[in-house]
């Protein structure tokens, strides 16, 4: 029996599946409406874990606050033009992406 809390196990697994990817490689998923934008103000792994846990109230709050949502055509075009490198993690069928290029890491 593991002494690691289930949520921490999930986050550890998601962390291993998180990587950087260029926007051009995500075009098919964007066209299918499967890409979810995550604000750099949030922890990508926290968001992925909450999505995997189907935490609808938290997602509704994040969406209302503009921290999580669809990738707008304007954002998609800007990312395409510079072939942005994004952090991404898959929580099927969704691909969560986060642009940390303008965000200062602590």
Output the number of helix runs: 5
**Helix/strand order:** HEHEHHEHEE
Report helical residue fraction.
Answer: 40-55%
Task: Kindly estimate the percentage of residues that lie in beta strands according to DSSP.
Answer: 15-25%
Give, in spatial order, the strands making up the sheet with the most strands: 1-4-5-2-3
The average pLDDT score comes to 89
Strand elements, count: 5
Judging from the principal axes of the Cα atoms, what is the shape?
globular
Supply the helix-strand structural class: alpha+beta
CA radius of gyration: 14 Å
C-alpha end-to-end distance: 35 Å
Largest sheet: 5 strands, mixed
Q: Low-confidence stretches at least 5 residues in length (pLDDT < 50)?
A: none
What features would you describe in this structure?
This protein is an alpha+beta fold and 106 residues long. The chain has 5 helices and 5 strands; from the N terminus they run αβαβααβαββ. It has helices spanning 6-16, 27-31, 44-52, 56-64, 73-82, and strands at 19-22, 35-38, 68-70, 85-91, 94-98. The chain has a 5-stranded mixed β-sheet with strand order 1-4-5-2-3. A hairpin with a 2-residue loop joins strand 4 (85-91) and strand 5 (94-98). Helix 1 (6-16) packs across helix 3 (44-52). It is globular and about 35 Å long. The chain starts with 5 loop residues before the first helix and ends in an 8-residue tail after the last strand.
């Amino acid at each position: 029996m593991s002494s690691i809390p289930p949520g921490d196990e999930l986050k550890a697994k998601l962390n291993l599946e998180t990587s950087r990817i260029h926007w051009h490689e995500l075009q098919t998923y964007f066209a299918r409406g499967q890409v979810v934008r995550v604000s750099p103000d949030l922890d990508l792994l926290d968001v992925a874990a909450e999505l995997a846990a189907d935490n609808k109230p938290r997602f509704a709050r994040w969406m209302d606050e503009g921290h999580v949502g669809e990738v707008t055509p304007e954002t998609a075009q800007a990312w395409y033009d510079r072939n942005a490198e994004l952090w991404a993690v898959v929580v099927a069928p969704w691909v969560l992406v986060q642009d940390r290029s303008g965000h200062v890491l602590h």
